[in-house]
UniProtKB/TrEMBL annotation, chain A:
Source organism phylogeny: Eukaryota, Metazoa, Chordata, Craniata, Vertebrata
Annotated CDD domains: ETF_beta
A cellular-component GO term for this protein: electron transfer flavoprotein complex
Similarity comment: Belongs to the ETF beta-subunit/FixA family.
Keywords: Electron transport, Mitochondrion, Transport
Job of this protein: Heterodimeric electron transfer flavoprotein that accepts electrons from several mitochondrial dehydrogenases, including acyl-CoA dehydrogenases, glutaryl-CoA and sarcosine dehydrogenase. It transfers the electrons to the main mitochondrial respiratory chain via ETF-ubiquinone oxidoreductase. Required for normal mitochondrial fatty acid oxidation and normal amino acid metabolism. ETFB binds an AMP molecule that probably has a purely structural role.
Gene Ontology biological-process entries: amino acid catabolic process; fatty acid beta-oxidation using acyl-CoA dehydrogenase
Protein name: Electron transfer flavoprotein subunit beta
Pfam families recorded: ETF
Automatic annotation (TrEMBL), chain B:
Protein name, entry field: LYR motif-containing protein 5A
Pfam families: Complex1_LYR
GO CC terms: mitochondrion
Domain of life (superkingdom): Eukaryota
PANTHER family reported in the protein's UniProt record: ELECTRON TRANSFER FLAVOPROTEIN REGULATORY FACTOR 1, GROWTH HORMONE-INDUCIBLE SOLUBLE PROTEIN-RELATED
Originating organism: Cyprinus carpio (Common carp)
InterPro entries in the cross-refs: Complex1_LYR_dom, Complex1_LYR_ETFRF1_LYRM5, ETFRF1
Length: 294, 85
């Protein structure tokens, strides 16, 4: 039982740290100063991505070296996207946005990921059907084109995505979507606050933290320390079954999903050589000399 | 079996079972221990005691959620961020 108490201690330590980041009080007070804002409908559109589960350890390269084996591998929502969903739901709970729409692109299995987002608190889902060969070549450019088209169609004011997908680590979709829509972007957000008509974003950059103020509509990509995503418990999942998921095809949005990239080769990283143990310092020096290192 | 609490207990069991699917030591291990824990208390009839046990179950749910979150957070942090000295 001592193990679970360690977890609890760390979890509470976690929560305090997360609260420190989010230190300022929720922005309810401003609503009374700016009555205009409460009328505004801010629709948040999230991206939800299905990736190979982060705890799966045996990823194998396909025999024809064009990719990685994905059949039968457990898939789940991208961790950064979970953080994005949580942020959107938090904004809705603070009554700063009107509706949260979760979007995902892919084959039928993606519906499960959308259901998880609905269970976390999104209002409805949109499933952009992309299957088979198109799905394997679906990259950030195609996804951002789809998102740009959807954002215009749904008249969303805010798009929140995870900063990168853990399977391809591209870190491009958010930035490309903002460029296609000509919207400002707050990437690597570790804190997001809505202030009057603008969005204040604290970004995690190499040198530390950068605070920027951007106009709405905008694109935000979530970084690890934005919040602590809630777990979709069974009762919430049951409730989420009643929420709607609409199906859309990329062709309906006028988007061409053909890829401009061709994967030439996928290789496993080189096998780690086992080390050699030596008895004395003299032996070590000998071995290093042999290996040509000194 | 006290009727109103029976529903709560069953709901708790279902929630724990659902959470146990991702348990690091394996679903079978978790399910055995869960069933054992519930069966051990199956003859308790005092509603006070049942409420206490249900509360303990909810505490375990929170611990599991924290465990899963920390595991994911630590994995992401290790993969993507420079180790802080």
């Amino acid at each position: 039982m001592h193990r679970s108490s360690e977890v609890k201690h760390l979890a509470s330590d976690f929560n305090t740290r997360a609260c420190e980041c989010f230190g300022q009080p929720p922005v309810q007070p401003f609503e009374s100063h700016c009555p205009v804002l409460t009328d505004r409908t801010v629709r948040v559109q999230l991206k939800v991505l299905k990736v190979k589960d982060g705890s799966v350890f045996f990823i194998r390269v396909k025999p024809d070296r064009t990719g990685v084996v994905t059949d039968g591998v457990k898939h789940s929502m991208n961790p950064f996207c979970e953080i994005a969903v949580e942020e959107a739901v938090k904004l809705k709970e603070k009554k700063l946005v009107k509706e949260v729409v979760a979007v995902s692109c892919g084959p039928q299995q993606v519906q499960e990921t959308i259901r998880t987002a609905l269970a976390m608190g999104a209002d409805r889902g949109i499933h952009v059907e992309v299957s088979g060969k198109d799905y394997e070549t679906l990259g950030p450019l195609q996804v951002s084109k789809i998102f740009a088209a959807l954002a215009k169609k749904e008249q969303a004011d805010l798009i929140i995505l995870g900063k990168q997908a853990i399977d391809d680590d591209c870190n491009q979709t958010g930035q490309m979507t903002a460029a296609l829509l000509d919207w400002p972007q707050g990437t690597f957000a570790s804190e997001v606050t809505l202030e009057a008509d603008k969005l204040k974003v604290v970004r995690e950059i190499d040198g530390g933290l950068e605070t920027i103020k951007i106009n709405l509509p905008a694109v935000v990509t979530a970084d690890l320390r934005l919040n602590t995503p809630r777990y979709a418990t069974l009762p919430n999942i049951m409730k989420a079954k009643k929420k709607k998921i609409t199906n859309v095809k990329p062709a309906d949005l006028g988007v061409d999903v053909s890829s401009r990239l061709e994967v030439l080769k996928v290789d496993e990283p080189p096998q780690r050589q086992s080390g050699v143990k030596v008895e004395t310092v003299h032996d070590l020096v000998e071995k290093l000399k042999e290996a040509g290192r000194i | 079996m006290s009727n109103p609490l029976r529903g709560e207990v069953i709901r708790l069991y279902k929630n724990l079972l659902y959470l146990g699917r991702e348990y690091p030591k394996g679903t079978a291990y978790f399910r055995e221990r869960l069933k054992g824990a519930f069966m051990k208390n199956k003859d308790v009839t005092d509603p006070e005691k049942i409420k206490q046990l249900v509360d303990r179950g909810e505490f375990v749910i929170k611990e599991l959620e924290a465990l899963y979150f920390l595991r994911k957070y630590r994995a992401m942090k290790k993969r993507y961020y420079e180790p802080e000295h």
